[in-house]
Amino acid sequence: MSKTILVVDDSSSFRQVVSMALKGAGYDVVEAGDGKDALGKLDGRKINLIVSDVNMPVMDGISFVTAAKQLAAYKFTPVIMLTTESGDDMKAKGKAAGVKAWVVKPFQPPILLDAVAKLILP
Q1: Strands (DSSP E) found in the chain
Q2: Residue 121 pLDDT greater than 80, yes or no
């Protein structure tokens, strides 16, 4: 059974690039345009991993992760932040919210796939 990854980014072209890399590696992908949209997709379905941007309209990535971790079904779902943000302050906020890995844009697909493979739960 393939694993499902939720990709959250306000750039549809960027979501497409990430989705293609993940689908190419055999994962199923669910896409969301911002944190609020992503929370709506956390409807009880099995999500094995979340890849989220930080800076998005409506609801940013850190707020989204904080909210997602309040949901019992997703409390332990690993999260990778994929963002242009590389500051320690932002990383600390992410870690406090429950983020497991931080990948800075522009990203190399093998680096992302490596992080995904390490974090995705069997």
Answers
A1: 4-8, 28-32, 49-52, 79-83, 101-104
A2: no
Q: Which domain holds residue 44?
A: 4-119
pLDDT tens digits, residue range 51-84?
A: 999 999 999 999 999 999 999 999 999 999 999 9
Contact indicator for 54, 85 with CB cutoff of 8 Å:
yes
User: From CA 82, how far away is CA 8, in angstroms rounded?
Assistant: 9
pLDDT value of position 68: 98
Adjacent-strand bridge partners of 90: none
CATH code, domain with 26: 3.40.50.2300
The number of domains in the chain is 1
- Tell me if 97 sits within 8 A of 65, measured CB to CB: yes
4-8 sheet: strands from edge to edge: 28-32, 4-8, 49-52, 79-83, 101-104
pLDDT at 91 over 80: yes
Query: pTM for the whole thing?
Result: 0.95
